[in-house]
Specification:
The complex is a heterodimer of chains A (226) and B (197). Chain A is mainly alpha-helical and 226 residues long. Helices cover 60% and strands 5% of the residues of chain A. In chain A, a hairpin with a 2-residue loop joins strand 1 and strand 2. Chain B has one domain. Classes of the chains: A mainly alpha (226), B mainly alpha (197). Chains A and B meet through helix 2, helix 4, helix 9 and strand 4 of A and helix 2, helix 3, helix 4, helix 6 and helix 7 of B.
């Protein structure tokens, strides 16, 4: 019973409590770049979820085989392989989405969330919790991207998932880069207001998985090795 | 020849700024831009890695992957080359150039898996640039990144001292400031056509 509760917790924590985009502020680049339309946000989110679940599963299975010293390159190879796979699948079955996500589909490889979960969770846990953790985090990411995409599409283009929404004149600035920063800032503030906690004070490279090799951060924000 | 190089350089630096209009390298942009000197250090480190990454990945793609019909392997190959190379530079710099290591090297571990670096190498291939054009594009992208970081560190020091509503304090206020800086970069649109058109 308690194990089941534990597994359920691994699944649900990523969706709201530790939402990777809105709470821990990881994977900001795709969050800002592809969310001009709700559909793109959803597609990007699901592609990332696929990679996250598969890489978590494989890394969890290989955790005793991979030598500790070279674990990060090994994780990156596993992740990049699944990214290549999803590129093929999307090019074949959803060519329109493939074109609109473009470069950012390849850049899933360097999404902090995936390497971060591999390092922090999958390399230390069993198969089932790792898959559930990946699924939860992925869905949390998808949810955040879908929300961002919806807000930007409704205000910026006067439509939602391709349907017209009669909403005055669309404000094009929302689908421009500036609108991305603005909407993300407002959503993070809103989420923290609703959850009744202080907004995060800083986002740093400390969130990036490579910084596990840093023993401390120097005055200028750089990384000091052991 | 020189004209097309300048067009690529200026586009990568200003009109298609990597951070403010392509959204690459947001992590270091928001993380390290608190102080001016760290912005400059990070910017220089990113520029250096971008140019070197292009130097390494372009020949591998055109001489090895493309002729053998393995172009789909580029994501895996590129990220491994970048990770290897950055590690190598870091070790050499630490041993041979301790002064440079202190100002630039400390940022190297943080940018191995930076999407701006992988992004610029893939973009060079996708845009079908020549080797020289790719290098210029990487230089422009790196300089653009530096400019964005340096400008933003100035804006940010004002935002930190401003009295913003409690809910927006911290990251939300920073993001909204970034949005305003991004609007100012929109005014560069048409600059390149205006100069060279």
């Amino acid at each position: 019973m308690s194990e089941q509760n534990g597994n359920l917790h691994e699944f649900t924590k990523g969706i709201i409590k530790e939402n990777p985009t809105l709470v821990t502020l990881l994977g900001m680049c795709p969050t800002l770049a592809v969310t001009t339309m709700a559909e793109n946000g959803l597609g990007m989110g699901l592609a990332t979820t696929f990679v996250l679940v598969c890489s978590n599963a494989v890394i969890s299975l290989l955790k005793n085989v991979i030598p500790k010293a070279v674990r990060l390159p090994c994780f990156i190879v596993v992740i990049a392989s699944f990214v290549t796979l999803i590129e093929f699948l999307m090019k074949g079955y959803l060519p329109e989405l493939y074109d609109s996500l473009g470069l950012f589909l390849s850049l899933i490889t360097v999404n902090c969330i995936i390497l971060g979960r591999a390092e922090a969770f999958a390399s230390k846990n069993k198969l089932l919790p790792s898959i559930l953790d990946g699924l939860g985090m992925g869905l949390g990411f998808t949810l955040a991207l879908f929300l961002m995409g919806s807000v930007r599409e409704i205000f910026g283009m006067g439509s939602w998932m391709g349907f017209e929404i009669p909403f005055g004149t669309p404000m094009t600035i929302f689908i421009m880069p500036a609108g991305g920063f603005f909407v993300l800032g407002c959503i993070i503030a809103l989420v923290n207001k609703l959850a009744n906690r202080k907004p995060p004070q800083s986002v740093g490279c400390a969130g990036c998985p490579n910084s596990v090799n840093c023993s401390s951060f120097s005055e200028n924000g750089g990384c000091q090795n052991k | 020849m020189i004209k097309s190089m300048l067009i690529i350089l200026l586009s990568a630096m200003l009109t298609d700024n990597f951070v403010l209009s392509k959204f690459m390298g947001i992590c270091p942009f928001l993380g390290v831009s608190k102080k001016l000197d760290s912005s400059v250090g990070m910017g220089m480190a990113v520029t250096f890695v971008m140019i070197c990454a292009t130097l390494c990945t372009f020949p591998v793609y055109t001489l090895l992957l493309a002729p053998m019909g393995l172009s789909y392997l580029r994501t895996i190959a590129f990220i491994l080359i970048i990770a290897l190379f950055v590690q190598l530079v870091e070790i050499i710099m630490k041993k041979k150039m301790p002064a440079l290591y202190k100002s630039l090297g400390v940022f190297l571990p943080l940018i191995t898996t930076n999407c701006a670096v992988l992004g610029v190498t893939i973009l060079n291939i996708d845009s079908e640039y020549t080797f020289a054009e790719s290098l210029v594009n990487a230089l422009g992208a790196g300089l653009g990144f530096t400019i964005a970081l340096v400008l933003f560190s100035g804006v940010r020091s004002r935002v930190e001292n401003a009295d913003v509503p409690e809910t927006f304090k911290g990251v939300p206020a920073t993001l909204i400031a970034a949005s305003i800086v991004s609007v100012s970069f929109m005014s560069f649109a048409g600059l390149v056509e205006g100069l060279f058109g």
